[in-house]
Amino acid sequence: MKKEAAQSWLSPCCSASSPTLKPTDPPAAGRRSTSSACRHDFASTTASSLFPNTSSFTNHESIPSLQQSFLQFINAYPKYSDTAPVDQIRAREFPHLSLSSHVSLDYIGVGLFSHSQISPPSPSPLQHHQTDFPLFGVNFKSVSLKAQLLHGGEGSDLESAIKTRIMKFLNISQSEYSMVFTANRSSAFKLVAESYPFQSSRKLLTVYDHRGEAVDAMINVSEKRGATLMSAEFKWPRLRIHSPKLRQMIVRKKHKKSHRGLFVFPLQSRTTGASYSYQWMALAQEHGWHVLLDACSLGPKDMASFGLSLLRPDFLICSFYKVFGDNPTGFGCLFVKKSVVPILESSESAGIVSITTPAKNSINFHEDSSGTDTEMEQIARLQIEQIDRNQQSSSTGDSDQAKFDKQIVTIQDRSKINDNPGSIIECRCLDHVDSLGLLLVNSRGRYLINWLIAALMKLQHPNRLDDFPVVKIYGPRVSFQRGPALAFNIYDWKGEKVEPAVVQKLADRSNISLSHGFLHHIWFPEKSEEEKQRTLERNIVKEDECRRIKGRKADQGIAVVTAALTFLADFEDVYRLWAFIAQFLDADFVEKERWRYTALNQKTVEL
Questions:
Q1: What is the spatial distance between Cα 492 and Cα 508, in angstroms, rounded to a whole number?
Q2: Distance between CA 473 and CA 456 in Å, rounded?
Q3: Bridge partners (DSSP) listed for residue 441
Q4: I need a surface site. Which of 55, 243, 316, 509 has the fewest CB within 10 A?
């Protein structure tokens, strides 16, 4: 039974024999589980153990030192010491994280390689073969998803080796799923939208509490192809799924033999850290939906925790960057269940890529390039145009399949620059995560993110009659089940919100990389209309797009600052973020930073 999949997720603070359910799963009747008690104890322990003698901090100079805070942290979470192997891996394999003094909290996901693979600390002839940066190249293909799945083959030795390693890491069966490499996460979502049969299965139902480039791309393509769009809503203020509404959208009566449509579901919000029950996927499957699992925001070993062999989504999307702490360019992975391939429609796309050994015609980003989805798409168009020109000049009478076969051969030949590239692929970051295991990785992130939330909630502006916090957190607060992502805003002493872009710029000057996002689909009860008007704002970024598309309204939501912890994050990372935010207790902090920047750079800057 699919519900058995829920029992594979174990609590690290309970015995391994005690199964637990996700927070929105119905508990067994007449029973308070050991794991439920454990989760409750975790929250109460956090509240009582952290800063027990301090109601609030009103001066950034009064916050405890890094050493004092760490001792208190260990007292609250003594099992954090069990995660020492992560610190050893970080010191040995990612020394640049300490040497650069840079805290990377701006993206979530998993890298393939360790930094030591591209910059060995003490190279010698006796060491294992080291691959030169950038480890692999990316070449774009002009081919439909369906053609690639049916006729693309295994690819080069390099591609086959990376594909096999990733599928093993994700615990995905090669006999049941086919995999393609995509330029990025957005490309994977667009490929599904361009290929899914919306003419017969018309609905697209998404479950996201935030806007994102990837899902927006899917929605735009699906709408143009005739899909009926639906979205889950999230209840204010904790942004939990509005369960009755989502259930109603999933279980509506089905009138045709075809599938209802595509249900797109993440198990965790990459913005707020909210966790969702994978029973929603089981419910959708039972009521005739194809399911796309967005695994991009899951922890490094979470794929092993929810029984993929029992749920088996029709599509699965994830992404991998190269090396954590460096330019996070990498690629996306789209998995399609082989039984679903025949229903897909052929559609040309620029999103599919080949992974090749580094060569002159491979995509290598400049060190200052962010490698964003937009940049990747621009490069993709240039490469596809070149491919089309080459094909037209070489042969005008070939069939589409012949052109496809020629392209595959060319890519395979180009990938064999080294004698046997597959044999030198060592995805050391994946190896590290496999050696650490699910419980250790998840518990470490749980301790760090909950300490950070508890610490942020202690910051209160001084000289006010009412208690006025510096930070407002959106989504779950201290919670056993929450993920390692956090959405928040900072407010000054007058109660005015500091724009997320300003916070991001100021953090960058402190060598802390944050990101920002936009929460949407927020549901308020009717009695809270005044609070709704006071809370929501327009998505200014999307207003120009709405003017171009007649009838489209700009989203209402909340612009937020976001921080995300990878499995390599340590206590100093979260402490430095807390110490940075504590500076906003100084009423003149932003103004002082503006003048300091002017003095250093001899020019003004808009914050």
A1: 19
A2: 9
A3: none
A4: 55
Alpha-carbon distance values, 296 to 307, 520, 597 (Å): 17, 19, 37
d(CA 450, CA 452): 5
- Structural domains in the chain, CATH included, are 50-93+435-601 (3.90.1150.10), 137-424 (3.40.640.10)
276, 265 Cβ separation under 8 angstroms: yes
Q: Give per-residue pLDDT as tens, 89-117.
A: 999 999 989 888 899 999 888 899 999 88
Q: pLDDT digits over 302-326, tens only?
A: 766 655 667 889 999 999 988 988 7
Give the residue-averaged pLDDT of 562-574: 96
Report pLDDT for 106: 92
Closest by CA to 169, choosing from 118, 215, 109, 128, is 109
Write the CA distances from 133 to 69, 333, 569, integer angstroms: 38, 21, 24
- Rounded CA-CA distance 276/270 in Å is 12
The pLDDT-based confidence of 388 (bands split at 50, 70, 90) is very low
CA distance 382 to 577: 40
- E strands in 227-280: 228-231, 234-235, 240-241, 261-266
Task: State the Cα–Cα distance between residues 14 and 19, nearest whole angstrom.
Answer: 9
What pLDDT sits at residue 184? 93
Q: Are 479 and 41 in contact (CB under 8 A)?
A: no
DSSP symbols for 348-401: --S-BEEEE-S-TTS----TT----HHHHHHHHHHHHHHHHHHHHHH-SS--HH
* CB burial string 319-349: b at 16+ within 10 A, e below: bbbbbbbbbbbbbbbbbbbeebeebbeebeb
The answer to whether the CB of 190 falls within 8 A of the CB of 351 is: yes
CB 231 within 8 A of CB 205: yes
Q: Which residue has the tokens 């797009």?
A: 545
Give me the helix-helix angle, 571-582 and 500-509, nearest 10°: 120
Residue count of the chain: 607
Residue at token pair 């429609």 = 345
